[in-house]
Amino acid sequence: MIEECSEKTQDFDAEGMKYPFELSQVQEEYLKELNIPSDVWKGMSPESQAQQLEFIVGRFNEIDLPQDFNKEEAMGKLFSPEILESYKQLEAPQDFIQIEQVSDVLANCEELNFERWQSLELSEKENVLNALEVKIAEIEHRPPCPVRLTSMPSNMWGGFNPNSKAIDINRSYVEASAQDYGLYREILDTLVHEGRHAYQDYNVNVCEVHPRHSEIVSWSESMPGGKWGYASASIYGQRFYEQQAIEIDARNFAADVLDRFDQKQLA
Length: 267
Hints:
- The chain is mainly alpha-helical.
- The protein is built from 14 helices and 3 strands.
- A 3-stranded mixed sheet has the order 1-3-2.
- α6 crosses α14 and α8 packs across α10.
- The N and C termini lie far apart (46 Å).
């Protein structure tokens, strides 16, 4: 598809080099309205600080900045150092960092040694999965979800429930994973995959912490109430279900984490 570019030529010099994007004075003033002096910020409750940061992120999103815009650098110019530091703690790491850190969590878990996993009772396996989810959620800067082992149809590995904010995993497959390494690995894949759905849900419906706003917009379109809505496999078929933005993202994220986990186990 050919896009018209007549309105974009102002961003390039005579040699075709792109100028760095800068905020206009009006945009800067609009953002600075939410600045709070350092002494006042320090006296605010964590809840009030979090709400103020959400307001700031919302205003950045309103002015529709380029994907490569350095939001952190702009905040350093417009807001107090304390607000900038709080923002750094709010924003989740880039995906490649999350993948590395989540795979570390899996690799450092003694109970995930397959021989050790085989010896665990079902309740112990559930406890391990819950402990892993707490650590994964911390990396992803979102609240942890309770992980529940439930009775599910044989064609389902698990799912994230956006209403209860829980991760459900097929109890039968967790039980059988003690004798089947392939099932054991799929249980871990399911945990990470559904945790990624929890991360998507948190960004779309609660607080934006993902570094790329455009990806959050894409996720929102294939969620209930979004532009396209959520297409379940039972209604729309497996192929259409798998091609949704949130499913592609969760599937790729989990695959990358498990690949790194495998590499670390062999090291």
